[in-house]
């Protein structure tokens, strides 16, 4: 229980000014000085990040003040959409190591499907909010969910794209034995989801024992009862784990569906490195020597034939057709 006169508990008449923020900013200058002294090369990035943080929080405070005053479902829905758009842009443009066509749409859909329904249900039943879209509870909780979902979706998507590029032989083996594209990609999706949930799983055991998370600290500093703040943090962290799992799983499934087409072909040309940029499409022509060799050598002709079938029908169907032609004998 917070004590009366506690300086950490703001009273209704107490307001923080920019002078208070400037005093706290002096601590950040210590990091910048250390960077200059040890030649870390991060002082400029640190100051830019701090400036962005201050500006973004100030703008958000102005926007939320109007939304809280309006107390409108449409205002809350618009704010939720804006937050999801910003989160999807952050993943696609800044966080992801690899990108593919339509990644922004996939990420945005995964964020909305994973975070909004989860916290809508939690707000109504776990937090006992009536209406469930109460701006003072729903928007901050959704913002926390999107922050965790950014990390989860980025990890899941990057790992899936990396595995389909570096370990494509394993997936192609499943496809060649008749597995569907989602059955073949299931081991990759399993590992990707496990990695995406690892940060929040590692966070849970230390909450309350070693670290005091933001929701708990904010509720206590806001004057809430400590017992209520602890229960609020439990609800939030459990919902964060669920929303991160749903968003990461949706993004992973969509990524597998795009990178492996309906004919069972892995399409590495659909993805590119964020560092190198999107490559320019090239038309690959078959050399004349290969065509001549195919006409002279029946084995080479059969090999080129199955390659053409694999491009047109997909690997599983091409394999079955080649076996029916008597080119492969299983022993």
UniProtKB/TrEMBL annotation:
The chain crosses the membrane at residues 16-38, 45-64, 70-91, 103-126, 138-161, 204-223, 235-260. Pfam families: UPF0014. It is found in: Membrane. The keyword Cytoplasm does not apply. GO terms for cellular component: plasma membrane. It is a multi-pass membrane protein. Keywords: Membrane, Transmembrane, Transmembrane helix. Belongs to the UPF0014 family. This is UPF0014-domain-containing protein. It comes from Tilletiaria anomala (strain ATCC 24038 / CBS 436.72 / UBC 951). The lineage of its organism: Eukaryota, Fungi, Dikarya, Basidiomycota, Ustilaginomycotina.
């Amino acid at each position: 229980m917070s004590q009366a006169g506690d300086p950490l508990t703001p009273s209704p008449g107490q307001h923080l000014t920019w002078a208070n923020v400037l005093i706290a900013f002096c601590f950040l200058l210590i990091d910048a000085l250390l960077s200059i002294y040890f030649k870390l090369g991060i002082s400029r990035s640190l100051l830019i990040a701090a400036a962005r943080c201050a500006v973004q929080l100030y703008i958000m405070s102005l926007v939320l003040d109007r939304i809280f005053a309006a107390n409108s479902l449409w205002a809350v829905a618009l704010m939720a959409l804006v937050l999801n758009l910003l989160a999807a842009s952050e993943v696609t443009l800044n966080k992801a190591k690899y990108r593919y066509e339509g990644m922004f749409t996939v990420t945005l859909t995964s964020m909305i499907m994973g975070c909004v329904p989860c916290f809508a249900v939690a707000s109504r039943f776990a937090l006992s909010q009536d209406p469930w879209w109460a701006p003072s509870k729903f928007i901050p909780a959704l913002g926390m969910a999107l922050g965790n979902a950014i990390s989860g979706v980025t990890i899941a998507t990057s790992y899936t794209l990396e595995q389909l590029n570096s370990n494509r032989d394993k997936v192609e083996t499943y496809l060649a034995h008749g597995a569907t594209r989602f059955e073949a990609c299931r081991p990759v999706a399993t590992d990707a989801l496990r990695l995406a949930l690892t940060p929040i799983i590692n966070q849970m055991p230390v909450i309350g024992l070693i670290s005091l998370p933001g929701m708990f600290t904010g509720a206590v500093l806001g004057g809430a009862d400590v017992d209520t703040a602890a229960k609020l943090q439990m609800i939030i962290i459990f919902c964060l784990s669920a929303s991160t799992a749903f968003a990461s799983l949706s993004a992973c499934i969509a990524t597998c569906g795009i990178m492996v087409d309906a004919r069972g072909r892995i399409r590495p040309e659909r993805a590119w490195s964020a560092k190198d940029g999107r490559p320019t499409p090239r038309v690959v022509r078959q050399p004349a020597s290969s065509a001549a060799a195919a006409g002279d050598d029946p084995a080479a002709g059969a090999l080129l034939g199955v390659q053409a079938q694999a491009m047109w029908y997909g690997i599983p169907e091409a394999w079955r057709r080649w076996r029916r032609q008597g080119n492969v004998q299983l022993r």
